[in-house]
Write a structure and sequence with these properties.
The chain is of the alpha/beta class. Helices cover about 45% and strands about 20% of the residues. Helix 1 packs across helix 2 and helix 3 runs parallel beside helix 4.
Amino acid sequence: MSISTQIVDDMVANGIDFVTTVPCKQLGGVIDEVEKRPEIYHIPSNKEDEGMGLCAGAFMGGKRPCIIMQNTAIGVTINTLVTLTQFYRMPLPMLISYRGELLEPVACQAEMAVHTKALLAQLNIPTYHFHHQEDAKELDAILKYTFMCNKPVAILTDATFWGGY
């Protein structure tokens, strides 16, 4: 079974039935797998903060949402995370490709990597960093946690997790 299939299987097992995605090369396999699943309503988003708004609406409509995005847009999501998701205690698993670490070929990606974890920590968002595919064994527990606590959770997946750039 591919890691993308395993990730989406865990999503489905935890009742996630609404997913919004922003295009990302590293997360492409997961996005393709989400698109195949009839039990998941998939809406692509133009921007990450827009996707979080869609997830909030889905949650208020009785769905279990998830957003799939890159870390490079964490900065534009801060207002939405704080004034909507956190204030109204909405669970939101965020599967995030963590661009900008060792061997990153795009210089601007490296700059945001320096700030990603600090921003998430400042917002008191629990953050889990997957370096190796066996780390994904924790995903089921992480998803259960976010829905039990009604809070956003960040799952960072770096290039080594996906097998490189």
